[in-house]
What we know:
Layout: E1 14-19, E2 54-56, E3 60-68, E4 71-79, E5 88-94, E6 102-105, H1 106-109, E7 120-121, E8 125-128, E9 132-135, E10 139-141, E11 144-151, E12 157-168, E13 177-186, E14 193-197, E15 204-214, E16 226-230, E17 238-239, H2 243-246, E18 257-258, E19 262-268, E20 276-282, E21 288-290, E22 294-299, E23 301-303, E24 309-311, E25 315-324, H3 337-340
Parallel strand pairs: 6-13
Antiparallel strand pairs: 1-12, 2-12, 3-11, 4-9, 4-10, 4-12, 5-6, 5-11, 7-8, 8-9, 13-25, 14-22, 15-20, 15-21, 15-25, 16-17, 16-22, 18-19, 19-20, 23-24
Amino acid sequence: MSFFGDICEIKNECSRSISAENPDGSVSGGALERPEGKGSARKLGQGWKVRPCIELPATGRVELARIEGPGTIRHIWITVDSNAYRSCLIRFYWDGEQSPSVEAPLGDFFGCTHGLRYNINSLPVAVNPSGGFNCYWPMPFENCARIEVENLSPKPFQNFFYQIDYSLGSIPESAAYFHAEWRRSMTTRECPEHVILDCVSGIGHYVGTVASWTQFSNGWWGEGEVKFFIDGEEDPSICTTGTEDYFGGAWCFGESFSAPFCGYPLWKRDEGQVPRHGLYRWHIPDPIRFSNSIKVTVQALGWYPDGTFQPLTDDIATVAYWYQREPHLDFSKRYSQDELWSR
């Protein structure tokens, strides 16, 4: 599934889009809502932005899309109040499966960690002013696709805008399905390691990491290595030299940045608050291939005054992104809102 390799080819596909203006993506089904004398379009009538958004009800779920395949989701755009970023979960289900292939807090899935709004200028995910979430990961499916958002908050979120662009048509026999999982843990001095991904069974390739790092110690926090354990390895074949090195930087960063395949767009160090960091790394030119399993970890390490490594106690949350052949192992979890909130 290439981002640009087939853009010049004529294909036997039809393009569709789901939004609040066309909730089921039907042919000629957009902008049919009638203002009925109310709202911003009451002077213009039908066809003039009558229903551009929806409301996410308190402690409820909303199905954004249900698509009969075969097809491929090409682009997703969402914007909503930033208070929803760590109060709402987004889930994707492929081909009628019972457990989701994607489950993550809404903001983290689009790279905005800690429930904060900031810009990201990368290839598969872009967050543009002011809070425009864009996802360009291609997501093929054979029979059907379903996307839902769950609001864990006791308050509704109004003005939830969304658009899901997709194509209907056959998918390659070699196509794998898109997956993403959010994990959060508190490292300890005895076990200064966060598991980014585990319990994967099947053939596929790892394509990205988003990290939300809350720092509880003075000094440099990112000396730990990111390790990939492929197909049951006890010792990793792929091991980075440091956290900032894995995310494409060097020498403790020193400043934030956002690039096509890697970035450190958030470095928040306000007075009276713990330092918070947001990072991403996309394995698009360099996917990590696995035949039956993969495990990914990151260490939390700093320095003692004597120049030796110091295990750190930090709050780390990550989203792992990968493609694999179905079925997948069930990694879904029932979350409460306080499990998602940032420090």
